[in-house]
Amino acid sequence: MITFQRLLAGACATSVLMMTGAATVHAQERVHVLHNQQDAFIREVWDELRQDFQAQNPDIEVELEFMDDQAMQQRLPTLLQASVKPNLYWSFGGDDYRMRAQSGLLGDITDMADGLRGNIPEGILEAYEVDGRLYGAPYRLAGVGFWYNRDLFEEAGVSSDDIETWDDFLDVVQALQDAGITPIAAGGSERWPLHFYWTYLAMRTGGQELFEAILNDEASFVNEHYIRAGEELQRLADLEPFQSGYMGFAYNEAAGVFGNGNAAIHLMGEWDIGVQTSESESGEGVSGDRLGYFNFPAVEGGEGDPSATIGGVDGFAFTSGRATEESVKWLEFFLAPEQQSRLAAEGIIIPVANGAQEHMEDQHLQMVAETIANSSWHQVFWDQALGASVGGVINDMSADLVAGRVTPEQAVQQIQEAWEFR
């Protein structure tokens, strides 16, 4: 869209050029954004928003750069200390974010954030505050649960309504096996998709109080509840529920297995709605009434509330020395209720901006949002909340438990050692 102001500016520049015969170049401030977004449709919508912003702000050029999650995480530590780096990048809150802010690697936007504070509830914005200072802002809420293919469930004669406990879930997995259906898609090569199983089981067996006691160094990861979490995960692994060669599959590839209807279940966040669609051969994935959702079930005898959820808030962090007024202005625009409402209506996010959630039309996002709203405890992903060093060990141990490379006792001991040396 070309605004009147932009046309007027162009006319004035032409007049000056004609009068003086000298070329005038209008400088643009550049805002560089780095993100791990892989969904092609979402990228297209973001680019449309970028164009809208630039039409309203012709003095600012926004560059959206995308790379896969693994490459981005490997590059970030070096990138954040480089002289050439993005203005802002995708980031969770959590321990890594806090440490980067305290180490001077992030840019403080506290004194430029009035617009952000007006758009986003303070309780959500606090996820990006460190010691009372703001270094970024949230983009969306996230929640992890079981996505399933209703057609394959019906073929196996099972129903999600019958899954109240972990034992019920294992019975469904076995029934799918017996029907000749691969029960679960999993991306084992990146490890983090498997950590959802162990951390959910730990939450169900140990509960919120135990986890918070560990965070305060008042308890240890080496406890009977977390050992049991490993035992229960290995009970699942013993059923051989995943697609053949799952340890060699990246997340996107596993999402494609589910989207193609080659596995009945995928434990993943709400972003999987789009990824399993775009990664499917048909480009349609498992959609409409064929796509079902349920929360992680209770563990019998466990002390955790079965309504608790894993997910969190993810968004953007500013880099040190690059938190410019222009970059804050872009993020303020991107996170404003108008843009968040559009993204919500497109079925892309569970939004964080004031009033935007009421624009969600996607039934599946509504399921996730309702599950989070009804949870007694919504815990940020453990591999983010506990920092890279501890989170990496949890991811590794989850994969090793599934592969039978460690015992449940060895797994929690290694996690505790990482916690002590963090």
From TrEMBL:
- Cellular-component GO terms for this entry: periplasmic space
> Is Cytoplasm there in the keyword field?
no
Q: Which residues form the signal peptide?
A: 1-27
Q: Which UniProt key words apply to this protein? A: Signal
Transcription regulation keyword on record: no
Q: Which domain of life is it from?
A: Bacteria
Subcellular location, record wording: Periplasm
Which family does the UniProt entry place this protein in?
Belongs to the bacterial solute-binding protein 1 family.
Q: What is this protein called?
A: Extracellular solute-binding protein
